[in-house]
Amino acid sequence: MAEPLLRKKKLEGGSIYQRPPNVEASLDALLLLPIDQFVQRCAITSRGDPKYVPSECLLHVLRQVARLNNGDHFEALFGFLRQRILKALPPVERFAPGDRRASESAAAADIRDAVLAQFDQMLCRDRLDYEEHLDFFEVRFDMAIAKARSTARRKVKRDADRDAPLYLNDEPNEHTREVEAAFVRLQSDPVYEFEESDYRKRLLAAIDLLPDDQRRVIELQLQDIPIDSCDPDTVTMVKVLGCAEKTVRNRRDRAHATLRKLLSREGESR
Amino acid sequence: MIDRRLAEDVLYAFSVEPKHDRQTLENYLRRYPELAEELIDLSHELRLVAELGESEVPTDAPVTATAEAAERRPENLFNDFKGATFAALANSLNIPRSILVAFRDRLVVPASIPVRFLNRLSNAIGASVDAVRAYLEQPPTVAAALSFKADQKPSVPDQVTFSELVRNTPLTESQEAELRQDLSGDDRN
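YS: structure for the whole thing
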């Protein structure tokens, strides 16, 4: 039914991207099915189901069908793909502190629409020619969706509440032991107890609410990247963000104070 | 200034890397310092995907239920409780209707339900504890995402724990007292 090879070349080395072996194996098997059966199986939504069609494979066949101008199957597969896209978007608003959930839902809806619009455009281009960026979605669908979401997020104008500065009046140097402790737990490989994972999710959703410059410092902190270093070859926050050490520390401290506030407010509202 | 098309290639390439650890991020930050902010933002997004799991999606596309799946579906214990009788059931349990809805739709992690509450619920419905347990252990009725990415950490179903549900629901004083009793002496939450 289709050529299983991708076209996109890697930036380094120039070799062509390959699907992970498990996706490749699923695709080989699925391509043997009559198209009607394939479409039927795409309706299965549980990943645990042995007949579940990986999104990477669904997209591959959709791209083939689109080029063949097979209206019926295209419509059905397109519907399933939209569901997969929506499902792959992380439910940040669900874990946001209670008083921010409504504004987060509004922001999430805008981001969702922007991601779907991006995808529609790529599929249109793919139908006419070959949109190489869609190859990435055939490699790791959910992760490529994260990229699409990141782009969408930049485009989406956050609503007024979200734009309101989160800076609190706390002293920037105030000791924020709980948040520090939470980070240690977030950084270390977790024991996946449910409560623990629930707390991690709420912490991540709160990090997501931080202003961009603070959130970036926190992400770098979570990746264990040092603020500064005497070694000129070390990647540091100061170098990467292009600002003074003191600025980085201030952003980090403000972020910690905000997170502590958001999470304790969350605790009170529960 | 980096070309936008190349920037997109870089960001997509980063997103499909097998790992998104410090080393991978550092490699990209070294090679593409102009894209530092976008790479860090993307690193955060990837973390959200890995940790927060999937969104729930309403089934507006054709529904999947095959005949065999329908056959396997256990009896809906709430069939006899609709409208006023549903409200009466909630009242008899001294819980808000929204909590009962969560049970009806199987949105509660079965293992997190205190035994005392399970007993109260089965008594009120008029079914055995085992039947109630079997019912609650079926997948949620909304087309909820149940499993996470296979290549991610072990995951929990897309449900809430009993204590989380209680925390997130506005309660009257007497409801709160009742549910507290359910929770006390049960350390699974």
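YS: worth flagging: Residues 61-73, 142-157 of chain B have pLDDT under 50 and may be disordered.
IM: good catch. Also Chain B touches chain A through 61 residues (CB under 8 Å).
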